[in-house]
Amino acid sequence: MKRSFAALFIIILALFTTSPAWSAGDSLVIGFTNTPSTLAPYKHTITNATVIQRNIFDALVFRNPKDWKISPALAESWKVIDDTTWEFKLRKGVKFHNGYPFTARDVKFSYDLIVDPDYKSPVAGYMSWLKETKIIDDYTIRLITHGPYPLVLDRLAYTIIISGKWMKEHDETYIAENPMGTGPYVFKEWKKGEKVVLEANPDYWGKKPSIKHVTFKIVPEIAVQVADLITGKTHIVTDLPPDQKEVIDASGVAHVEGVPYDRIFFYQFDGSGRAAKGPFQDVRVRRAVNHAVDMDVIIKKLRHGMGQRSCTGVVPMFFGYDPTVKCYEYNPEKAKKLLAEAGYPDGFTAEVSAYYDRQELEAFAGYLAKVGIKTKINWYGDNRSVLTRKRRAGKVKDIAQFHWGTTGVWDADAVLYQWFHSKEPNCYNFDPQVDQWLDEARNTVDQKKRKELYSKIQHRIVDQAYWLPGFAKFNVNGINNNLDYHPPKNEIIELEYISWKK
């Protein structure tokens, strides 16, 4: 979708003649560009659905947005029994929104469901370290891991707990459209393609929300979202293109804030021919594409500097990121030479599938054209979940534009394992050596050793050019000036921590 500044100006000018529709006190409207495909637990990896669910459900622990430390939630305390056993004491007196009591049985049901092969959860890989969930009593559980695993708490912080009894009482369709948890907000309404409505949970065990009514409003057009923001119809706009900052800041009604966060933007190659045999099984072709694209210019011109270059694909603030790994230099002549050596002196046509940013996609295609690679664009911007399903099914040919967030798991494992371990559905570059290193890093708590292993992995991935790493994104939000809110580093909006200024 191209951003039409002329159209944006006209919309703003027309709407700005009316008085701002300030909505304060007990209501909040958050603008999303796309609608969730489902709200079923553990059935998606879509950010917007995750944000909504985080406010309906709780996890055993959470990353406190005040200091970003792991803090108690449904678990009041925990301890390590031995290298493979963690014990959690659960919070008593907590109830689900329908009145069902929360107990250890719900924790076991939740974790067992995620790893159940028949449930086919796209997040099962997040919990592959878990061997068994044992109930000690109604408010004590023990988690048994396959081996020493250093990220237990990080993973649990974003693994919501559901009611086993409630899940058994309803069919899949009802569950997907009527989420029910223990969280600070209660689900009220979902008009697909239009809005999701939540209301504050008056009986919440934790921090009480100050805003009673929250609407997640679905507005695909950025121009309309910006117009809604500066006329007060919407109070937060997420995932905002940085080029809207000047218009919004000048409105006097809202402003733009951007912070580095845990999401990486990249292009993935089908290096193993998982979807189809083609040029990208040749490392020279993959290296040529890396040389053909000037990612620094894309960050500067299209992201207005709101992106942090990563040569490895690991977010720079993560544990295990190796700053010694160098990016491929922008060198189109070298790219042409590599293509010729690979048997493509006149180039070829590559399929490029994408759903995120059309403007950056067109810049990418333009760079490829300069070295002789024509592109056939498969655009999924209006239905991202279709491309996600195709990716996981191994049906995405040649190149794909993706971005990946880790929702607060700030460790190289959260990126590298999901995209480069051959048993993971996102992997299109099968490398037994990388598999071995990833497994070793997952099964030791020796941080020095883990860092060494992740360094080896990143050097290997860059040398083999398994993908074209782009940049760690900035979480860019448009925010109403009367709202006490700042964009989170993990892109999860914790509604109970938002309030209107007095």
Describe the protein's topology.
Elements: H1 5-15, E1 27-32, H2 47-56, E2 61-63, E3 70-72, E4 75-82, E5 85-90, H3 104-115, E6 130-137, E7 140-145, H4 152-156, H5 164-169, H6 172-177, E8 185-191, E9 195-200, E10 213-218, H7 222-230, E11 236-237, H8 245-249, E12 254-269, H9 283-292, H10 295-302, E13 307-309, H11 332-341, E14 348-354, H12 358-370, E15 373-379, H13 384-392, E16 399-405, H14 413-420, H15 432-442, H16 447-463, E17 467-480, E18 483-484, E19 499-500
Parallel strand pairs: 1-10, 1-11, 14-15, 14-16
Antiparallel strand pairs: 2-3, 4-5, 5-7, 6-7, 8-9, 9-10, 11-17, 12-16, 12-17, 13-17, 18-19
Descriptive notes:
The model is unreliable at 1-7 and 10-23 (pLDDT under 50). This protein folds into three domains: 5-55 and 183-253 and 481-500, Periplasmic binding protein-like II (D-Maltodextrin-Binding Protein, domain 2), CATH 3.40.190.10; 61-169, Dipeptide-binding Protein, Domain 1 (Dipeptide-binding Protein, domain 1, Alpha-Beta Complex); 262-473, Roll (Dipeptide-binding Protein, domain 3). The strands form four sheets. Strands 1, 8, 9, 10, 11, 12, 13, 14, 15, 16 and 17 form an eleven-stranded mixed beta sheet that branches. It has a four-stranded antiparallel beta sheet with strand order 4-5-7-6, with helices on one face. The chain has a two-stranded antiparallel ribbon with strand order 2-3. By secondary structure, it is α+β, with helices and mostly antiparallel strands. The protein contains 16 helices and 19 strands.
